[in-house]
Amino acid sequence: FTDKIELAFRQDFLRDRNGSRTGATFGLPVGDTPELYSSTLTLNWKPVANVQIRPEIRWDHSDKVGTFNGNRDQFTLGMGVAYLF
């Protein structure tokens, strides 16, 4: 939007055949093929020179019930602060 404020949006998709990457992590039955989706919205704010603040919100979704502690959906809020050389 400006030199000090930017907005970023990212989406990801993973079809994990036979649960080889995520099955043990999420406790899904062996041989399950979960489909995982995520969307992340990040604000990049540079209040002063060399400082960047990045608040973000992320939504994760699975087609399998119980993937995220008994749920199919999960929301995460996060923030990062960086000093840019």
Pick out its properties:
four-stranded antiparallel sheet; 85 residues; 5% helix; mainly beta; 53% strand; elongated
Extended strand count: 4
Radius of gyration: 17 Å
* Structural classification: mainly beta
Q: What percent strand?
A: over 45%
SSE string: EHEEE
What does the main sheet amount to?
A: 4 strands, antiparallel
Helix content: under 10%
Mean pLDDT: 87
Q: Kindly, what is the distance between the CA atoms of the first and last residues, rounded to a whole number of angstroms?
A: 23 Å
Low-pLDDT segments: none
C-alpha geometry: elongated
SS summary, helix count: 1
The largest beta-sheet arranges its strands as 1-2-3-4
How does this model look, in words?
- With 85 residues, the protein is mostly beta strands.
- Strands 1-2-3-4 form a four-stranded antiparallel sheet, with no helix packed on it.
- The longest helix is centred in the first third of the chain and has 4 residues.
- It is elongated, with a radius of gyration of 17 Å.
- The relative contact order is 0.22.
- The model has no long low-confidence stretch (mean pLDDT 87).
Task: Give a brief outline of the structure.
This protein has 85 residues and is mostly beta strands.
Write the layout of secondary structure elements.
Blueprint: E1 5-15, H1 23-26, E2 35-45, E3 51-62, E4 73-83
Antiparallel strand pairs: 1-2, 2-3, 3-4
